[in-house]
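Quick start: what a row looks like.
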Amino acid sequence: MKLHEFQSKRLFAEYGIPIPTGEVATTPAQAHKIATKLGGTVVVKSQVLVGGRGKAGGIKLAQYPTEAKTHAKKILGMDIKGLTVEKVLIDKAVDIQNEIYLGIVIDRTTHSPTIIASSEGGIEIEEVAKRKPEAIIRLTVDPILGLHDFQARNLALELGMKGKHIHKFVIIAKGLYRAFVRSDASLAEINPLVITTDGSLLAVDGKIVLDDNALFRHPNLAEMRDLQEEAESERKARQYG
């Protein structure tokens, strides 16, 4: 079961991962109201359970509330890979210095959580693997012992981080690991995890995929399923097991 970006980031926040300030709108008027409240430049982001939103025109910057309203009007109702946009996330824009990829999956060979990280954030990790495989760092985590501070620090150093960024990264990496394990996820991904010009680290975009077979343990997460935004192929796969 896939979570929307806004749902994933709210879950991240529960585990101490900093996210941009933002709210969801279902109408252009709501987008205008949220943008006014946030102030300054905002990002209007379509909420659909597929990738490629930016290339499809589903992510736009808006300097003014009126512009946010205009973008929301165009994006709401848009078709992106067969899915209709019914919600937009209005996030406060941030000044980005660097973009990092940070994700966790289950390695089917070792049956252990594996952290995947790269200094080449902001693009699909599969694209990085093809174009620049040496930029991808992998760390297998013992499922019994969990992720240690020293492992997260070493990962930060491999990513080229220095000073205060290292401590902030450790908190985020451990938070993502806890979110992954405690929600029985098959994927937890921050892309990008950005370093801002003021030195903050923020999960600007994120994705969580939950194990359908474990949802009975998480009724609060199961309630987040968006049947209208789920791809037809996924609905059929779940229906027929």
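That is the whole record. The chain is about 35% helix and 25% strand. Residues 96-216 form a domain with the D-amino Acid Aminotransferase; Chain A, domain 1 fold (CATH 3.30.470.20).
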